[in-house]
User: What shape does this take?
Amino acid sequence: MNLRRIGISLIAPGIGLIVSLAATAVILTVIGASVSTVFASMWNYGTSPRAMSLMLNLATIYFLSALAVSIGFKMNLFNIGVNGQYVLGALAGAVVASNLTLPKTASVTVTIIVAMFVGAVWAGISAWLKVARGVSEVISTIMLNFIAIGIISYIIVRTSIGTETSLNIRGTKPIPETGMLRGSAFIDSGTPIYGFFFISIIIGVGYWFLLNRTRFGFDLRATGKSATAARTSGVQSNRMIYVTMLLSGAVAGLVGLPYLLGDTGSYTLQFPTDWGFIGIAIALLGRNNPLGIALGAILWAFLDISSGQLVLEGVPREISTIMQGLIVIVVVISYEVVRRYQVKSEQTNVAKALAKQEASV
Amino acid sequence: MSQSSLAVELNGIWKRFPGVIANSDINLKVASGTVHAIVGENGAGKSTLMKILYGMQKADEGTISINGTDLVFNSPSDAIDAGIGMVHQHFMLADNFTVLENIVLGSEPKNGMRLDFTKARKQISDIAAENGLAIDPDILVSELGVGDRQRIEILKVLYRGAKILILDEPTAVLVPHEVDELFNTLRDLKKEGLTVIFISHKLDEVLSIADEITVIRQGTTVGSVNPHTQTVSARDLAEMMVGNELPTPEAVGDTIQDEVVLKVENLSVFAKGGKAIVDDISFQIRAGEIVGIAGVEGNGQAEILDALMGIESATGRVQFKDEDITNKSTRHRRELGIGFIPEDRHRQALMLDAPLWENRMLGHQTRTPNANGIWLTPRSAKADTKRIVAEYDVRTPSIDVLASALSGGNQQKLIVGREMSGEPKLLIAAHPTRGVDVGAQAAIWDHIRNARQAGLAVLLVSADLDELIGLSDNIKVLLRGKFVADADPATVTPQELGTAMTGAGEAA
Assistant: This one.
């Protein structure tokens, strides 16, 4: 029965992939490109060692972002503010790390703690607004995204925290090499894999444990499955909103660090600010399950990385964005269809099994 | 009845749900141009029957004939086309729309692409004038009270051309003078030749408005009376509703101990508008004692239970053993050893899309066998779920199936088993055997009796009067949030209790 359940849970993403590939093929044909050449070229490039390294690095970032989102999703709390939480976390991390003269482990640990703390505080504002004032977290988190980005621009452009970096962009003072976590090129490609790749695996495992093996996780999932039943069971919903939002924000605070500590070493005005939204899409794809999220993150990163090939084939690279969008829509729809089918089929199975029992008595 | 044609005729209607028979062999004849009441206890099958008549559910067997023509309803729109309109108990109105907008919503009068409000306004004021339903069409629904909202609901179905109106418990939400207004409206509708099917369990009201009353008991029609030609009292109807079966006999051993487990003083629960739903009630339960609350559903039972569990905010004082728990959290109360079987199991007692063993943990997620400190212990939780499945005869192929896959009765058995686990000191139970088949019902009763022997205190709410009388040591009758009478289960009959519940016997 469990094998069957796993099989069923793979149907939805499978359908999503097939349908979006088919739809992409149609689009490619319409714009007059050769479907097989384009797909082959994307695949060939995407499986090259260098692309694989880039892909895993990007997937690390997406994975953390999606985890942050899915903690909230598990109890029907929509943290759309991962963007704001991680840019502030990354900025705070960059500022602190650039002023630390500690051994590597200590320096990185402090940076992580600072980033998580800032992310949590920023998310905590939305939690407070929801509990105390009844403001929907969807609205408040999205507004706080804009405020966060505004604050960051101000700090970097107007205060002494921002300086001219080497590339003629304003940003924070560079982090000394002892504060960086560059990782190593364990795939033979010359491009190192972020040290955060491993940290994110640990966080993923921790997330699974928290959700499935702790009382807190049970309360969280119960609230998501039925808020009224959870309340009757003794879950205090306001407390849950605070804790969950703070946790989500803390994980969100990490999202910028792989890139900051593994690559740029400075928070500049060019630091990407939309990984939070990608996290939402991947959380949906992965169905809030850490393994599913990991696969979703890798798929998303693959499409991002290999989209560079599309240009070489004379095809607009937006095709890969269309594919990503299609995958999400189709997967979300097929999840729901599969879920309904599953509930129905389980009901009939139970009825059948009971009828058999009764007949044999 | 022979003087007029039949507006509605139902023959041999059967409806089965997994594990439950909601309707069995229902036969109903409604003469056109009359107000026809359908009465029965909660769970007797009234709602299911009306859903069938309104096309929301399909009968397994039987025929529906409207104005002499046999019809099959696949959806409410088929029923609407046949001239049937339904006024739901819970209003379905958009607060931020005007009366006019609400009425036309879903069947907007169009003039090309435009909405033709002028035409709609005229039509509505005509209908309103004909039926004495005066109302300003341009006022926002959010500004209106309950009585007006109900009038809008009636206008809504009339606007859609309904000739047969189903009103589901229309008086449940009204205050007395609004009830009078509603009845005047119904009389006007009757004069216009419309047919009204009126569902209720308030017997005195039914007697004052209905031309014909059909009684449903345990899913089947047990008889019809005509209050114009026959002399019927509310008491007679109550008797028909609850039947004449005597409560299951049992050896009433006196197990009541001295220790007071639950002491409730001046408990009140207020609705949003400030109306008291539970009105200053006090009682206590001793160890080994079962106190039953008899009452028609919606008189404050659910609120009392929720207040005792700390889910609903209330005034007054609640004491558990020596501890004042008035301001304690639900979790704290549960950890003290209070088990809770809520009225609405789907909303409050189950996670439908979680496996049975996870449902076993719900409400007990801080205690053994489900948790050890902050860690869950799924292995022992699963083992204990298997125990419950065996002891309470939960019919399921495995403890890994989702709760939604079980029939209602089996879900209930799981809930009862769960709440009886961990040696509770107090059990707060609403309808513990609702939807459960007869054999399992007796088993649940035995479990409760055995626990009582060991000193369990029980607060029991039940619509099953036999159950209430058979189990309780003391019965209190609840009407409009107040205890209006005490009954001794050793001497009271279900009929007497039924009468007291509906307020019909208040004078007696």
